[in-house]
Write a structure and sequence with these properties.
The chain is mainly beta. The protein folds into nine domains: about 1-80 and about 1230-1260, Immunoglobulins (Immunoglobulin-like), CATH 2.60.40.10; about 100-230, no CATH class; about 245-395, Jelly Rolls (Sandwich), CATH 2.60.120; about 410-460 and about 655-685, Immunoglobulin-like (Sandwich); about 460-635, Jelly Rolls (Sandwich), CATH 2.60.120; about 690-805, Sandwich (Immunoglobulin-like); about 815-1030, Immunoglobulins (Immunoglobulin-like, Sandwich); about 1040-1135, Immunoglobulin-like, CATH 2.60.40.10; and more. The strands form 20 sheets. Strands 7, 9, 10, 13, 24 and 25 form a six-stranded antiparallel sheet that branches. The longest helix has 19 residues, at about 1240-1260. The chain is flat.
Length: about 1250
Amino acid sequence: MIPLPLVVNIRKKAMVMLITFYFFFGIFGALSADALGKPDLTIDTEEGNHTLFIFIDYEETIDESNEDNNMASTKIFVHKPIYPPFPPEAENAIWWNPQWHYRVPVAVKMFGQREGGVYENKFVSCTINFTALMDKISMQQPFGGFSERTFLPDSVRIVEYESENGTWKPGKSVGEEIILDEGYDAKENANVTLLWVLTGDVSPHEVRYYYIYWDTVENGKKEASSKIYSGIRNSEFENTHSLEWKNSSEPKSFLKFAEIGGWDMGYATDPVYGNDYCYKIHRKGMVWQNDWYAKVYQTFNIPDGGGANSYILHSSIYFDSDIEGIEWEISLDGSVLENGKGTSGWKNIVRNVTSYLKGRNTATLSIKVVVTETNIGMESHEVNAYVDSCWIEVSPNCNVTLFKNETHGWWGEVSPISTSYIAGVKNRNKIKEINVTTVASPREIMASIYSPDGVFVKSSLPLPDAGFESGETYTDLHHSDVQTTNARIEGTIVHNGKKAVELNLHNYYGSMKFQDELVSPDDTAALRQTITQAVHISHLPSLWFWYNIDPSKYYDGSVLNYTLLVTGGKNRFYTIKIGELTKDGDWHKYEIPSSVVEKWKSKSGMVSGIEIRLIAKNEGAENIVYIDDLGYSFVPLEGGRTSWKLTDFYTFQNGTNVGNWRIDVTLVDASNYKVESTQLINVEPAPNLDVFSIVAPNMMKEGQESIISVYVKNEGPKSIEENTPINVSLTLYQGEISSQSIKMVKAISGLKKGETKKVDFTWRANYGDPSFNGKWSAIARVNEKGEIPEWQMTDNWNTASMEVEPVADMEIRVHEIDFSPSHPNKNDTVNITAIIHNIGYNPATAEINFLVKEKGARKYTLIPGGSIEKIVGKRDFVVLSVPWKAEQNGTYCIKIKIDCDDEYNKENNVAVKDIRVGGGIDASPPSIQNIRAVPSLQYLGEYINISAIITDNETSIDKAQVFIFNESGEFKKDVMKFMNRVGETDIYYYNTTYDAIGYYTFMIKAWDTAGDTVEWQNMQESKEKEFRIVYKGVETNGPSIRAISAYPQRQVLYGNVNISALINDTNGVEKAMVHVIYNNEEKVYEMHRIGGSKVYYYTHSYDQPGDYDYYIEAIDASANKNKNDTSSLLRHFSIPEDYDMDDVPDKVEIEAGANPKDANETINVSVGTEIGYLLWVENKGDYVYWDKEDNEVRDTGKKGVMLLFDSNGDGEYDMSYDTQTGDIAPYKEEAGAGIGNILWMIPIIILFVLICLLFILIWRK
């Protein structure tokens, strides 16, 4: 039978009768005129085709104007219900409570529709053998796992689960009762019956899903469970603190005098088996009076509310008496079900009590021992009655499916550990921490590491509570004297977390002198933790603890005994004198000396725990010592025992075996249930780069261009691949390295082990700071920033010394040649000014010649008075000025040449600058053409030449500058350089080197010689150009970008547009970005990768309508960070203002809750100048009206088939739309109907009643 939800639309005031086959259901309710009724009905029927007949007012109690539409029928098909798949994978069902360690899934399916069935608070029973379940779990365990497992009945909890987005989530634990079945044994045969209630309404065929959690005695007691909704509570009497069972007796008192007294009643152990609890009634005495009694009883809610078909009472009685005239009886609400005298052990009672419980809500079960005959004698008599296992079996039961094969224990996960390490390389050779998370609380966790040849190297000590955060759960505390010693958990003075241990020895002073007691020499206070995992003593890690000594109370002669508890060998001791410890009231770490640990490791036996004992050693020796954070062990983090951390696990030093190492992490609970995690990690060797030599001239002349060679060798055991760049830098400095130092950077590609490569740096010698007398230091470094992991960075540098002989170095710069006027006319006298520099550190005599020729002529002539001899001081300059008369119009080359015999560098001794004589006013800027950087792809540290042809049609070029920007668009003044001119050509250039790879852009600015009184100097700025600095030997091709698409290309406002592309590169893709351009504003978004594929995507919603352009940019993962983009071919997508073209802007529809994609849900109800639309709002199930002119959304009304709306915004409905005909018409509220309107309907009503009566007669026949 399948429940069928049914909704019927009724447009009349009526009573409703629904009929399907032989089932009749009545739905009653009143409907006002023109109203629509939708009564809901659940019909339980079989799968398949059915015909549903619907009768309205089938008893003809309502007068109607038309009864022809009071009956309807429809065909329906009933499908089988679809249930979510259960049980799921273990990880998809959230663990309920970390204090529980094992569970099994259960599904309970309600029976179908049946007469007299109970569908509310249904009682359920299920038989489970927990020993069998634990056996099944143990078969999935590693060898020796789950070896200690004693079922704990009080631990059973039944937790209801529901599926939410594919994840099963737990609700609250439901109340349950557990019945120990015949032959029950907690270890060998934990066969039990579980009872619980499906609370609330339960539909036919409804399925509820549960996990039954349980635990073992070894894992400790659990908090009390919820009480079952109905049935007898504490049926097995296992909860000895429960107050569900009450008692009464006559007599009530218990007087041992003359053995005359009352009854002794309460929980007791099983008198036969002794392995569980029951309830005991006991009396001993010489006087036994008729009608004396003792009774234990409980009033309970009857399962299924008294509506079950059958109730069977189960109980067990053990009765033993050495006197006649006394018997036991079991009764329900005073009706005796069974009675008797001796039982010869346990007597199982099974009685059908249906007649007692049927149709009732509560009942009282009583077990009574009553005296039937008075007996008074000199001899004492004794009676013992025991009651156990009182419960009600209910029929019918639901269909309960226990998924035995899906039973499982808890699990834990080790957070990902880096799988790659490099021996000896700082920050790459250390397993800094291991983090473990679990769903249930383990007792212990241990990590071990093994070398590639399988040899044990190190492990942690599996202490259960190294930080004492669980109090005394895992820590045993001991003190020898209640007056003078104490060991306790401390919550104020702690090192980490919230708890520590206080060991206290103190003198006791009583109120009287004779009560005083001093600390004795043998007084002790101690803590101890034991471990269950087998750790051989030879595998000991380093051992430590943190301590804090109260400076106001200590005795130097007292000691701390650190004891390593050993099974299969002798305990090992280490004594620490208090006098050797720091006593400042702060925390300090004490590590057991490594020599002691190594000595212990040479012994035999298995480590079973540790103990720290404070011993007085002298009378009156008072001490307070706090202990925290034992090592070396995992520590549970604050807030529970499901998150653990182990720090500083292992460091791979240089010389460590390389290859695949193994880390084993083992988690166990107190039943030795194991969770194991194994992870392989790869330890690689490292190269060792050595700058073993710098070769440079010992003596250089200032201005001399010299080569300094740096030799780099790989001394390590690992080669560096050829496509891996290795940075080599050379820094020249005087005194200390500073911003004034000269740093040059180059790179080599790869270096095999044992291989040497030479790197040449070129330097034009400079005398530098005079205080250093020309002495320079050179430091060469390789792999300066540590991009390449090395096991030893100490020899990555070397130094050398050089000396520079001071020499004059004359220099003339083209941009420092000035003309006044700068644009002369014929016969004007031009004052030519030049700055002559001596950039060397020696004065010198120089002859400076000012020469001129007309542009295009062959020879220069000396300007009259243009030969000047000057002494230019060291690092000084002179300003020279020579007049020249411009006798003819035209363009002239002014050449300034310096002759000096005392200098070494003569390359900067000549400069040529043009001047234009005559001509019109210059209003146009210079022309900058043929801009280029050669090579456009240059290696790190090598020169790049930036040049351009710069001309001016009206005057000449005054100066040119190059501006260079890095990849981030940053501009630095030290790269704003004046360009040099190549002789008297129009070519200007600038040479430079770069010490960082990347993409650089540059542009050139040029100024002409226009100016003076009637014109302004003109400036021209070039377009930006690009060059790259790359590593030599590393590929320079950018990623390929293909299959670019935007989906959808036309999207609704606020809808997501997915931009994707197939991006590939042999070195991998480091980053992919999409550039989206809208209204000339460009935004950049990082793209994401789909799993391990080469498809990258970015999904975004857009809140502005319009056309969008976009392109993709990608950067590869090589050392050169090669780029590629598709900006040369922009692609597009659009966000239209009106997606469905229904004349209503999407923004209006979205804000109103309408669908902007479907024009069929928009109705144009415009009339004349009132333009408006009806918009369907799905979540309201109604229309709203949008006034286009006022841009306002208004609610609508209904009247029959008409939709009413306010078109003019006056607050009143003034227009209507007929949903059947589509007509639009004015609307006005009608006045109330008068008496005349009612009177004319009376004959019609009478006629209608007669027709209804006739219909009933026909229908009944």
